[in-house]
Amino acid sequence: MTTAATTRSAPSHLTRLKRRTGGGEALVGFLLLGMLVFIAAGAPWIAPHDPEAIATGRVLGPPDLGHLFGSDALGRDVFSRVLYAFRVSLSVAIGSVILAALIGVPIGLIAGYRGGRVDAMLMRPLDLLLALPALLLAIALIAIIGPGALTVLVAAALIYVPILARVVRGSVMVTKQMPYVDAARARGVAERSVMIRHVLPNSVGPAVIQGTVLMGFAIQIEAALSFLGLGAQPPTPSLGVMLSDGRDVLTQAPWVEIFPGLAIAITVLALTLVGDGLRRRLDPRGMAR
Amino acid sequence: MSAPLGTPATGRVLDVQRLGVRFAVQDEVVSAVSNVSLTIDAGEIVGVVGESGCGKSTLAMAIMGLLGSTAHITGRVELLGRDLAGLTVEERRQVRGDRMSMIFQDPLTSLDPAFGVGDQVAETIRAHRTVTPAEARARAIGLLESVGIPAAATRYSDPPHRLSGGMRQRVVIATALANDPALLIADEPSTALDVTIQAQLLSLLRDQRDARGMAILLITHDLGVVAQLCDRVAVMYAGQLVETATVEQVFRAPRHPYTQALLAAQPSAGLARGSLRVIGGQVPDLSDPPPGCRFAPRCPLVRPECDTPPELLAAQPGHSVACWADPATHPGAAATASSTGAPRGAAA
Asked: In Å, how far are B134, B140, B145, B150, B203 from B153, measured between CA atoms?
C-alpha cells in the first residue's frame, strides 16, 4: 500500500506479506480479522464493565470516557456488551463452518470422485436441503431443538453442508481429470490415497474461500435469528439481540443500535476481504508464483 | 532392491494379443484400438508410432489398466507371463508402478502441484514396498540423483513448479523407475520439451535401460526419436498395427504404403520452401471405420481385396506388414480377391 521501496533481489517484508496473503486489501482483511479474533478471545480482560450489570442511574446514557459506546435501556455498558456479543457471534460463525466442512467436504469429495450412482445417492438429499429457504430451515430446526446459540450454530451448519459439498464436488470433478491423478494411479497409489492425498488437497481451495464468505454470512444469520428472538437468549449478549433492543430506542439513543450494527458490518467486511485474498492466493493460475 | 516377481534379464516381458478397446460414446461405439498384437523382450525398446488420435495412448492406458469403466477391452495382455485381465483390482494396482510403470506426455501436469517432488518418488516406493519413511526418502534421493537431478536432497521438498520442465520430466522418470519395473511405458516423454532437453532425456532413458535391463514401450509421433532410441517399431494407423519391424528395416525398406507415406512426409533440412509432402485424405471416423483395410481410402495401391481386413503377416524375419498389396505376404496379390492367407497370428 505505502511506498514499499523494493529492490528486485530482496522484496521487503510488507511486499512478501502482501503477496502471501493475496494483495493489499486482503492484508487489511487479515489484520482486521486477527484483531477481531483477539478482541473476542480477550473480551473478559478488555471489557471495562460486566456486560450484564444493570445500572438504573445510566439508562440510555450517551457515550463518554467511562462508557465508550454509551449504555442501553437497562443502563448496561454497550461497549462491554458488544465485546461479549462478538464472542458469541464469532464462535457461531467459525463453529458452523467447521462443522459443515467436517460433513460437507468428505461428502463432496466422495461424490465428485466416484461419480455416477454414488454421486446421485449422496448429492440428491443435499439438493433437497438446498431447495429449502435457509432461514426457514433454521427456524424449523430451532422449533425442534429449542432456541440458543448452539442451535443457531447447528442450523447454520445444516444450511452450509450442501453448499460446501457442492463446491468441493465441483472442484473434485475438475481435479480428478488432471494428468497427475492418472499419474498417481499409474504409480500404483491406491484409490483411497489418490483421493485423499492427491485430489483433496488440489480441490479444497474453492471450499476454503467459500468457507470464509459463509462465516460472514453466519454472523448475519446469527444476528437475524437473534433479532427474531430465536438465537442466543437473554441475558447472553448477542449482536442480533442488541440490534433488536436498540431498535426500540433508536430515536432517543442511536448508539445502542449503531455500535452492534457496525460490529457486524466490520466483521463481514473483514471476512469478505480475507475470502477475496484467499481466492487470489489459491487460484490455480496464481499457483506458479 | 529385490522384486517379488523377479525381473528376468532376458525373455518376454510384455505379450499383447489381439487387444481391442472400444468406447461406448452415447449411442455410438468407437473402436479406438483393434486387433493389436505386440511383444516386447527384456532390454528392448519398442516404438509405437502413428499420428494423433490413432490410438497410441489408448493402447498404453489399456496395457496399464488405467482406462475407465466406459472402455470395453478384448484380447490378452500378459506381463511376465501373467494375464493381467485375470487380476483383481488390488492385484492390478500392485503391478502398476512396480512391475510396469508409465511416463506421461506432459511433465508440467503429471506431477502433483501440492506435493514435494521427492515425496512423489517416495510415495511410489511406499505404495509397493514395506519400508520406513526414512528409507523411502533415502531411496528417493538416490533415484533423483541417478536421473541427474543435482542436489537432490535439497530439492526433495520443492514443489514441481520450482523445477524446470526438463528437471520435472527427470522426476517423473525417477517415479517410474522407483521400483525397478520390468516394463516402462513412455507416452511421448519428450514432446513437451525443447529439442536439447529432449535429446538429454532420450539418452537418459537409454542409459537407464542399459543399466536396468528393463523393456521400454515408447509411444511417439516423432520418427526422429524412433530412429535415435528404438530397437523395433510398430506403426499404428487408425487403431490398428499396419507394420512391425526393426528400426533398420522400417527406415531402409518400409513395406506398408502408410509407413512409406509417413517417411516421405518427414521434412529434411535440404527441402525447398513449400515442398512438404502430405498424405492426401483424412483419418477415418473410428465410430464407422472402413470395412477392410482402414488405410484403403487414402492408399495409392488400393485394390478390391482391401475391403476385407488384412492380417499382419511376416514378410521376412522380424518384419511384418498388414497389406494386400505386399508382394512378400500376398504373392498373387494382383490376381484375385479370393486369397484368405491363413492367419498365423502376429509375428513379432
From this structure: 12, 9, 9, 9, 24
